Amino acid sequence: MMSRRGFLGSSAILAGAGAVSGRVEAAAIPEAPSMDRPAMQPPLRPASGPDYQPVVTLNGWSLPWRQNGDWKEFHLVAEPVVREMAPGMKAHLWGYNGQSPGPTIEAVEGDKVRIFVTNKLPEHTTVHWHGMLLPNGMDGVGGLTQPHIRPGKTFVYEFELKKSGTFMYHPHADEMVQMAMGMMGFFVVHPRDPAFMRVDRDFVFLIQSYDIDPGSYVPKVMTMTDFNLWAWNSRVFPGIDPLVIRKGDRVRVRMGNLTMTNHPIHMHGYDFKVTCTDGGWVPESARWPEVSVDVPVGAMRAFEFDAVNEGDWAIHCHKSHHTMNAMGHDVKTFIGVDKKDLGRAVRRLVPDYMPMGSAGMAEMGEMEMPMPDNTLPMMTGFGQFGPIEMGGMFSVVKVREGLSANDYADPGPYKHPPGTVAREVAPAAAGSPQRQVQPVSARVPTAEFDVVKPGSKRPASHRH
Ligand SMILES: [Cu+2]
Questions:
Q1: pLDDT tens for each residue of 317-360
Q2: Diameter of the chain by CA atoms?
Q3: What are phi and psi of 285, to 5 degrees?
Q4: H helices present in 307-452, as ranges
Q5: Which residues lie at CB < 5 A from ion ligand 1?
Q6: How far does residue 389's CA lie from ligand 1's centre (Å)?
Q7: Do 262 and 207 touch, CB atoms closer than 8 A?
Q8: What CATH number does domain 2-314 carry, 3.40.630.30, 3.30.70.270, 2.40.50.100, 2.60.40.420?
């Protein structure tokens, strides 16, 4: 599960970490746990201190800490990582403690946190704590509030968690490159009162975009708009964990957007209310029902609902290009075009050539076409009724009766009660629609208007 590669070892090595000094003794740097695979880890229950309902990071994990006197101590290691984005495709990213995104940091309102950051990247970095209220010098803006953390160095951040809520961390140094490479993580501050805003399941993910050419491994960091992999926690469908929920649970889903466009996240089967942003909890009087929540750039949203409706409910970004995997955006639209002659002509040169798209692109969801190595199909995934034809930012909310409280294992496809699935009917059974509409003249009374001359008084009567 968790490899213990990070222990900084002997005090001789630690003495070399020059940036850590003064009131923090070098020998006191906690080990840095590391994760080597993208499997969802069970929620990390607090072993001491105030109780809380820990979050579940889709395809991720929470960072263990150590209590040292008044301080909760964490250790992040910024480093190159290999992230499987979905089975069959790995990306060479930068992240923290073995993965991109980095581990979720969880603590409690009022905690004092001491976060060590070791830089194992080839260039300098910093960490900014997005949304936190903290001393200016802990804000992590390289050059502005602190010197950069040079490669090989360890810095320490210390601050008190002034309020509970939904936050994230990311570099504020060569930011365009480092965020395009996957450097970011979630930071959840639980309320000190365990009863406040209590939920039974609390899921978190970060929204990312990557531009990785088919057959290659490293994101193109200069891309501004035309990304080809739209990810949650550096995973794309069908690689994104389902959100497994016990029927009757109170559920929260929190997300943060570190891409360069907005993402309207849409969930089927429910309405819900946004209860938290990166600015804090939303007062009850200011919440309204939604079925999609638009997550602006550089913002976070959390919504809540009671999981009363069983089923396999889709959850996805509503921008349809964001539920596709790598595709050429210069492909022409061929809907309605007969490509038979074209196909014959091209096959003389390219025997495998298959003209596509004349009747839409659904056929691509069904067929396994030859592709370059390390490339995901544009639309893929199979459900119990056939191809799902999705990619990118798509997953499934699986609500089931009778799961145990801490069970997040995929329960498999939903077993629909008999007679509750849309079905084919014979043409005759459908019948022809009954026309009971009256002619227009019979049902719309003619409106009558009096014309008023400019300057004159209103007419005594007017009819509509
Ligand atoms: Cu989107």
A1: 999 999 988 765 555 566 666 666 666 666 676 666 555 566 66
A2: 100
A3: -70, -10
A4: 340-349, 363-366, 427-430, 440-443
A5: 263, 317, 319, 322
A6: 16
A7: no
A8: 2.60.40.420
